[in-house]
Amino acid sequence: MQYHYDAASRLERTDAFNGGTIGYGLDNANRLKGVKHIANGQTLADYQSVTSGLSQIISRLAPSLPITDHPNKA
């Protein structure tokens, strides 16, 4: 496993030896806002964190897969 960091020493992505990659997105407060898993050039999963005024919603987005919302979605 290889780890890649940005200029502020925050984890940007991990590369597995089998060719898979996991990318991490952070907001300006360094909170995790998204995770994207890619293998063989295809997006397997794309998780985005959306913050509302009352709760946090997690949605899973990927090509040819339905959007699946977190059960705690308001």
Which secondary structure elements does this structure contain, and how are they paired or packed?
Blueprint: E1 2-5, E2 11-15, E3 21-26, E4 32-39, E5 42-51, E6 56-61, E7 68-69
Antiparallel strand pairs: 1-2, 2-3, 3-4, 4-5, 5-6, 6-7
Structural description of this entry:
Helices cover 0% and strands 55% of the residues. The chain is flat and about 30 Å long. With 74 residues, it is mainly β. The protein has a seven-stranded antiparallel β-sheet with strand order 1-2-3-4-5-6-7, with no helix packed on it. It is built from no helices and seven strands. The model has no long low-confidence stretch (mean pLDDT 78). The chain has one domain (2-69). It has strands at residues 2-5, 11-15, 21-26, 32-39, 42-51, 56-61, 68-69. A hairpin with a 5-residue loop joins strand 1 and strand 2 (11-15). The termini are far apart.
Beginning-to-end CA distance, first to last residue: 37 Å
User: Would you report the number of β strands?
Assistant: 7
Judged by helices, strands and strand pairing, the structural class is mainly beta
Question: What is the helix tally?
Answer: 0
When the domains are counted, the total is 1
Residue-averaged pLDDT: 78
* Main beta-sheet strand count, sense and barrel state: 7 strands, antiparallel
Widest sheet, order of strands: 1-2-3-4-5-6-7
Radius of gyration: 14 Å
Q: Element order, helices and strands?
A: EEEEEEE
How does the overall form come out from the CA principal axes? flat
How much beta, percentage-wise?
A: over 45%
Q: Tell me roughly what share of residues is in helical segments.
A: under 10%
Low-pLDDT segments, ≥5 res: none
Protein name: YD repeat-containing protein
